[in-house]
Please model this.
Amino acid sequence: MWEAVGLSGDDALVYEALVRRGQSEAESLSAGTGLARGRASRILGRLVERGLATRLPVRPVQYVAVPPDVAANELIAERQRELMRLRAHAQQLATEQAEPEPDAPDPASLIEIVEGAVNVQNAVIRLQRTAQREIRTFDMPPYLDHPVDGNPEQFNQAEQRGLVYRVVYHPSAFEPAGRLDDVWRRVQHGERARVSARVPMKLMLCDDRFALIPISRRGAADAAYLVRESCMLDAFAELFEVLWDRAVAFNRLSQDVEEPERPVVSNELLGLLATGATDETIARMLGWSVRTVHRHMHKMMAQTGAETRFQAGMEVVRRGWA
Model:
């Protein structure tokens, strides 16, 4: 107990024995505590020096303890003074701390391994809260739990902060039930979304300062690399921009307008078509029947003169039909 205020085990033992006796000689304390007489005498001398005991001017020499409540208050005050001196010293030392050379960072500090699903989730949240300008993301399975937050408040707060979300989705990101509707809600709250079948991995970029990449591409996403400013971070940022430029915008039209000279083509159909999704996948994601998808595809190909589905999609874009 007394160690908290700097009184060691034997010193505390002798002090408490002296408190209980009221007044005692060193020899009696030695016998009562099991310590050698010489050691008990030295401890009594230290207690006197620290103001915890008084040496009485009698023969043989006797000692009396300072009341415990007074002693404890004094020891606590002394420890507080020491801690204040340490704080002042640490603050002064902080002002003298040398800044690391910007051109020579410690390589070990550039990449951190984040382990555990909870820690990875916390890192994702921390990056979004840390970002000042933009969050850029490659989105694809595997997911930790649920693939999307789906919380519009997140994007309301981002908009208030002037934060931009740009996301490139792999087609497999839309396979979980209800996922497509979740993404549309995110788009409606400010997310800029595109689709590409060439997304190579999950990735989150926080401004140009941090990147978070899962360690495993196919296993559970319960471990990740946190990459700080470096050539590697620059490479990830450049990769994102290249795929962003090549990806297909994935924005939902508010309504489709039928015109006799061209087919009705929604942006969601065009986005899925450009990713190479099958008719069955498109039907499931858009809530259509496979026959409806076939009808749209045949009409597109007939009116554009295209020989393949991909050509039809590109021709629709070129003509500004979507």
Remarks:
- Residues 2-70 form a domain with the Arc Repressor Mutant, subunit A fold (CATH 1.10.10.10).
